[in-house]
TrEMBL record:
UniProtKB keywords: Leucine-rich repeat, Plant defense
Keyword DNA damage belongs to the record: no
Protein's UniProt name: NBS-coding resistance protein
GO BP terms, alphabetized: defense response
Record bears the keyword NAD: no
Segments forming domain NB-ARC: 1-145
Xref: InterPro entries: Apaf_helical, NB-ARC, P-loop_NTPase
Alphabetized SUPFAM superfamilies for the sequence: P-loop containing nucleoside triphosphate hydrolases (SSF52540)
Source organism: Nicotiana repanda
GO MF, any single term: ADP binding
PANTHER family with a match to the protein in the record: NBS-CODING RESISTANCE GENE ANALOG, PLANT BROAD-SPECTRUM MILDEW RESISTANCE PROTEIN RPW8
Gene: RGA86
Length: 168
């Protein structure tokens, strides 16, 4: 974790072009412990006002599919850990509308490859030392430039983060 997968997905999810292009957008976070009910309620909660939560998981899945049917949808499933979870959820997403998109974030190469449908996985890479230093400078100094006496320690700090943007 910490390489920026969720941050990148959030940027897309909140981008005006995405909001304007799609009829509905929804986001859910899975994490290591999968709870189908929580996931379905989270996805539905972004699409319709919350209502009676006494429905079964199957009823929730059917409702989600019904709300997405014949709509251009943009879905983010964040932090997916297993192919089995994807198998459990994918039937909720109608595939008849070709302009819809689903973004999955995962640390697991096997999961990314397994879920590949129309495009290959995008692998987010670690920052180089120089990229880390640039990001650290931007975060600390904004538009100002770094004082020369702080540069050496700043570069050292940036390198100690191992290329992980969130560690900066």
């Amino acid at each position: 974790g910490g390489i920026g997968k969720t941050t990148l997905a959030k940027r897309l999810y909140t981008h005006n072009d995405i909001i304007d292009r799609f009829d509905v957008c929804s986001w859910c976070t899975i994490s290591q412990v999968y709870n189908k009910r929580k996931t379905l309620l989270e996805l539905l909660g972004n699409l319709v006002p919350p209502n009676d939560n006494t429905r079964s998981n199957d009823e929730l899945a059917v409702e989600l599919r019904r709300h997405l049917l014949r709509k251009k949808y943009f879905i983010v499933i964040d932090d997916l850990w297993s192919a089995e979870v994807w198998d459990d959820l994918k039937s909720c997403f109608p595939d008849g509308y070709s302009c819809s998109r689903i973004i999955l974030t995962t640390r697991q190469d096997k999961v990314a490859s397994y879920t590949e449908v129309f495009s290959a996985p995008h692998h987010v890479r670690l920052f180089t030392g120089e990229e880390s230093w640039c990001l650290l400078q931007k975060k600390v100094f904004g538009e100002e430039s770094c004082a020369p006496q702080l540069e050496k320690i700043g570069v050292k700090i940036a390198q100690s983060c191992g290329g992980l943007p969130l560690a900066l």
